[in-house]
Amino acid sequence: MKVGIMGGTFDPLHIGHMLAAESAREAYMLEQVWFMPSHIPPHKHAAGTTGAQRLAMVNSAIAGHPAFRVLDWEVVRGGVSYTIETVRRLQEEYAGIEFYFIIGADMVQYLPKWRDIDELVRRLYFIGVGRPGTPLDLDALPQHIARRVLIADMPQLDISSTMLRSRAAAGKSIRYMVPDAVFDYVQRSGCYGVQP
Ligand code: NAP
User: Fold this and answer.
1) Which residue ranges have their beta carbon within 6 Å of ligand 1?
2) Cα–Cα dist 136/142, whole Å
3) Could you give the count of Cα atoms lying within 13 Å of 86 in the half-sphere of its Cβ?
4) Global pTM value
5) pLDDT digits over 101-145, tens only?
6) Does residue 13 fall inside a structural domain?
7) Which CATH number fits the domain that encloses residue 34?
8) Is residue 180 part of a domain?
9) Quick check: is 133 in a domain?
């Protein structure tokens, strides 16, 4: 069985994340994609929302997709969410599954800096999906990493969580840039400064 792991801070989850997961699933015939919200991402400040809020957003967004699931492991573990720790546990608990870690183009360039990247690329393949303005340049990576990165095309969407947080804080609409269920959750909970 082939399973994609869609790791992210998802602060908030938006349609670029959903499309990246769906594009990778289709391109590499993944039977499932498991969303894995991080607690504190290794390369950023902690999210402004709680892990429970981000889990709720992801759960609500993926509810209608038969091949999508959510794992709360990184949020429950707490601390900095190093992918290698998650992948070691995944492979221990699901020995028969072949895992693929789905990432955006910005993250592909940053892979050499990931903790224990040499072990990670021995353990799984990455699937890199496009992002406007960031070419997926595998030649810039060390060869042993580049040969473990597969490419999936997706319709280009210039949407980021940072942009959505700024829009929400400025009182601008984020409707249709996030799944409807996430939009409803943000409205109800008042996160990102949205008036409930
Ligand atoms: P994020 O901002 O929530 O985004 C999740 C993923 O979706 C990212 O790979 C991002 O790629 C991609 N994405 C977002 N918007 C997109 C769009 N419009 N089009 C295409 N792709 C888009 O997640 P994150 O905080 O960067 O974290 C990504 C994962 O990498 C997490 O699981 C994190 O723990 C892991 N990570 C691990 C290490 C480590 O172990 N040392 C270091 C860094 C990250 P972009 O990069 O292009 O935004």
Assistant:
1) 7-10, 16-17, 20, 38, 41-44, 81-84, 103-107, 114-115, 129, 131, 157, 159-161
2) 14
3) 31
4) 0.96
5) 999 988 999 999 999 999 999 999 999 998 777 778 899 899 999
6) yes
7) 3.40.50.620
8) no
9) yes
